[in-house]
Amino acid sequence: MSLLTTKLHAPPTRPGLVPRPALIDRLQESLRRKRKLTLFSAPAGFGKTTLITEWVNATGYKLAWVSLDEGDSDPVQFLQYLIAALQSIDSEIGQALLQVLSTPRLPSVKNLIAPLINEINTTGQDIILVLDDYHAITSPKVHEIVEFLLEYQPACLHLVIGTRADPPLPLPQMRVSAKITEMREHDLRFTREEAATFLTETMHLNLSEKAVAALEARTEGWVAGMQLAALALQNHPGNAEDFVATFTGDDRFIMDYLVSEVVDRQPKEIREFLRRTAILHRLTAPLCNALTGRRDSQKILERLDQANLFVVALDNRREWFRYYSLFGDVLRATLDDKERQRLHQQAIKWYEQNGYADRAIQHALALAEVSGDYRQAERLIQDVGETTLYTGNISTMQTWLDALPEQRLRANNALAAQRAWAAAFSGDLELAEEYAALTEANLGKKKSDRELLGKLHALRSFLAIIRENYESAVDYASRALDNLPHSQAHARIIALWTLAEASERTSEASFAIEAFREAHRAGQQIEHNIFAAVVEMSLASALNEHGERRAAIEVCQQALNNYEDEHGRTSPLAGMVLSRLGHLYYEANELQASLSYHEQALALTKQVAQDDYVMLTHVLAAPTFFALGETERAFAALQQGYEHAAPGGISNSAWATSEEVKLRLRLGDRAFAKRWVDKAAITPADPINYIDLDQKIVLARYLVSEGEPDEVRAYLKRLEKFTREREQYRKLLTVHILQTLLAHKCADKKAAHDHLKTALKLAAPEEYYRAFLDEDTVLLDLLPDVRATAPLFVDRLLAFATGSEAPPTTPGQQLVDPLSDRE
What we know:
The chain is mainly α. Helices cover 63% and strands 5% of the residues. It contains 43 helices and eight strands. It has a five-stranded parallel sheet with strand order 2-3-4-1-5, with helices on both faces. A three-stranded antiparallel sheet has the order 6-8-7. Strand 7 and strand 8 form a beta hairpin. Helix 9 (192-202) packs across helix 10 and helix 37 packs antiparallel against helix 38 (709-725). The longest helix is centred in the middle third of the chain and has 20 residues, at 447-466. It is elongated, with a radius of gyration of 34 Å.
């Protein structure tokens, strides 16, 4: 959705501003004492924004400003505006976080905001960040983001919040620790002297001291009330004291009275302009022209601004304005339902034609509240719903859908399907299933219904993967692809990804690879985002597990070309691909190249902040650190992996633990491995499946030296059968190496040689040197006996093991005998 740049500018300082030196001194003291927060909390019309603007302009600090509204309760939209404000100071801030915001599932607040805080800290500039109109925020997630920012705020940043009501932040604790300066209603009221200055110098009234004192007393220093009274007094130049004497009542009645006094006395064209633009929260001349039928709205807006007549300029070019909040409320109250409907209709048309879909939807929903006709709102939401979902604005989408009557939502297939997707992305799987089933039951046989059915099947395949129901995932993904044309790239890439994931976990690797390749091709049709990076990483991983290390490297190298912008900067999304490259070079014992890729990956993926991929990069890097002798760093990387792990899927901590057990065994810590076996409660008799295959092979490695030979031999045979049938040739290589070690332990020389020859035939063409170097050194003693199987590979392997110079290698010349079809 388009960002309104006017929300990122502080309102210009007005001429004739009433100086408030005492308040400015208090605010400057807040900066001198390095307090974290300055809070302006008071009802509407007390000059909060004006004072903030005057103060921050006097500080010399760099300013990042966001004027908030209801739509910013969506955490994604809030962060988009927050980053845009900070990028006005340094364009590098938040680049990585913007990538994360394109995903449907946001990481934890810590992983979202910590990298942003670090980037702010490295700017070396003193920054004031203003969040104005914070009372518009209702989302607990946004409050959590701001609270985290406050807690870990860098010293160079000072946060300013303007609000009509205290936000749900830890204000009492901040008061106790003297980390907050507060400006409240009693602070912001005009003093008698300030009232006199305002009325005489700003509003150009010639009033007696008695009249000024009476007006200040009547309004109790309320700035908006005083301004409206002054506007009314401009129409009563001869009897100011009599006017003030009749001026009574509470704020609401004062407002009604003064607005009637002021508005009713404006020329007819101004009155009509004010009423017809009252429904707008932001005013710009072309939009006002569309609602009023005029061609001179820019002149009128400038006239209102110069006369201090209810409008606030939102940029220095005087292109965008807004009404004072209370004044806008009163103006809207003068409209009847027919006028509201007509004006909302005109606003919808203008916003839609000018690319502001979210604003058009807001007016369409407001129109529906008055007219009961939701058709336009439904059409607009339906048009942008999928894009909104795919770009991560889940909260915004849910807000729109929640505003529609339930019966209409259920009767509209496209919107019901979008409700299902929004529920799935936000973790409400039951609601997603309910709406998917409801929508599918309502579909007919039209072409559009067929496409929608394909999207629903893609959704169901996604849900099935989450629930580890792989048979259903394959079935639904296949049906989705049958119904989805190639133009539906977003849905197709999800279906292809789930099909590939399910295939990898349940059937031969070649099926998964082809599915990943097709998902990769689909990803090229849409702007590169985190889903495309996931597919590329998954494809490279699947190829490597299939024993195609070089093909996996080629996929990664080609992918990296897509992650560099026109300035030569690497996108944080490249971190996942670089991490996989680091592992692929580790397999070939190219440790310096591996280290370089892993270090780049760790730096970039940390910025992306997705727990799954932060964990992945740390755990994949650990073996390289270990092989280079950096043992502490290796275990520290594994610890980082644990901290970002979550139950289920790629981020399951069991995988990280398996990697740690392997390293502990290489250090001879068999007690650690024994504790792991007992705690994990896994045995050789357990069923073998793809998800826990790493654990099963680590168990086999432990049992080779600890278990009963016959039991271990049978277990390894089961692992061999499973990995061969599933075409998991990289793991099959490890199984044959473990079978070699077991046969050697049992003095079965022939079996040891047979298994070792098979392992060499699997390893040599793709240079899987670490498969041997990471095992018991007794394996190296057996290699000379089978050197003839892959002489160059064995020579290089032994050279690596002894630290001598390895002979050069030529791809494709590793084997004496070519692989058979079965091999």
